[in-house]
Amino acid sequence: MAPLLELLLADRPDLTVLVTSTTPTGAEQVEQKFAGRVEWCWAPFDTPGAVRRFLTHWHPRVGALVETEIWPNLLTHAAARGVPMILLNARLSERSASGYGRVAGLTRQTLSHLAAVAAQTESDASRLRALGAAEEAVIVTGSLKFALDRSALRQANQQERLQFGAGAFDRPVWLAASTHPGEEEPVLEVFAQLKAEQPNALLMLAPRHPDRVPGILGMPAVRQYQVVCHSAFQPGVGATHGEGEGAASISLTLEDDVLVIDTLGRLGALTGCADAVFVGGSLIPHGGHNPLEAAAWCLPILSGPHTFNFASIYRDLFEANAAVEVEANTLGTALLDCLGQQADTEEVAAMGERAGAYQLAQEGVVERQWAVLAAHLP
Predict the structure, then answer these.
(1) Backbone angles phi, psi at 278, to 5 degrees
(2) Which pLDDT band holds residue 243 (cuts at 50, 70, 90)?
(3) What's the Cα-to-Cα distance from 201 to each of 213, 256, 298, 313, rounded to whole Å?
């Protein structure tokens, strides 16, 4: 939502903007990106009392929900107060639609309160209409996940490289992004295969939830490597480099094997330091994560089979031969095809270029979703 919020703040400085979140990670992102420019609070539990108190306290004039944040009490009580509610970047997988269909009456009543729906794809739009959203309220705008500022990413990447030191990435670099429990083990097994062919290879390991980092650092498969955390490179922040060396100001050396990304909001910039990317949440049935930052960097993308959260995007990438679907037991072969000694570098580069072209072709989604929101602003 950040690009859309930036537009809102620039275009309507007369408005007070409240951003809510349901997780500490979300709260930290609001603080990092918008401190002092927006109000923030926790989203209310979706009970009648909590929602009434929330609406009475803030007196909103218009509300925007995101993706699949469909809250029956919030929508019902907002409608009773005449507050138009919009669903932006709306998505609804076939599996989720089936679940909503089991409470069809409640779902139809809830969705009927939406003043507008900006759906990511035609499939999302069709499912939302079928479940009760008004036909005329739903339009297809594309996904905000496509809304990447390549210039800003490049500038942020340059800053990251300066902090790491010259030549830190002059070797094969593999990023395992947004990993979940059950994925670090196969990633580390595959990294050992890569190290056997490319002894100077670097793994950038970015767990989806940074609070899992202490447990990851304690894994036997990790402890065999020279490990450094990304927080060690942030001004005024100490972190462990290797085993037991304490906090220090350091540079990433060619002796370092694993860089653990234990910070928030830096993954897009750090992706530009990689030569190939595995997008996590996909070897387990979580539904996968956004592959488009990797695509914006024109990198070959590897993903597991569980990608239903971004089904249409992955389908397009696979069909364009811009990404490769793997299982845990085929991840190693796919990685070596990208970064191994016998890799076809021209084909790997071409795969990345196809991914980049796909991402670039989706631009304009911020403006389309902004039009939906702007039409309902007071």
Answers:
(1) -105, 125
(2) very low
(3) 21, 9, 20, 29
Show the domains of the chain with their CATH numbers. 2-147+363-374 (3.40.50.11720), 150-360 (3.40.50.2000)
pLDDT digits (tens, 9 = 90+) for 327-336: 999 999 999 9
Which three-class secondary structure string do you get for the chain? Answer: CHHHHHHHHHHCCCCCCEEEECCHHHHHHHHHHHCCCCEEEECCCCCHHHHHHHHHHHCCCCEEEECCCCCHHHHHHHHHCCCCEEEEEECCCHHHHHHHHCCHHHHHHHHCCEEEEEECCHHHHHHHHHHCCCHHHEEECCCHHHCCCHHHHHHHHHHHHHHHCCCCCCCCEEEEEEECCCCHHHHHHHHHHHHHHCCCCEEEEEECCHHHHHHHHCCHHHHCCCEEEHHHHCCCCCCEECCCCCECCCCCCCCCCEEECCCCCCHHHHHCCCCEEEECCCCCCCCCCCCHHHHHCCCCEEECCCCHHHHHHHHHHHHCCCEEECCCCCHHHHHHHHHCCCCCHHHHHHHHHHHHHHHHCCCCHHHHHHHHHHCCCC
φ/ψ of residue 328, rounded to 5: -60, -35
**pLDDT tens, 339-361?**
999 999 999 999 999 999 999 98
Q: Which of 70, 67, 64 is nearest to 377 (CA)?
A: 64
Give the CA angle between residues 88, 78, 98 to the nearest 5°. 55
Nearest residue to 288 via CA among 32, 91, 26: 91
pTM of the shown model: 0.73
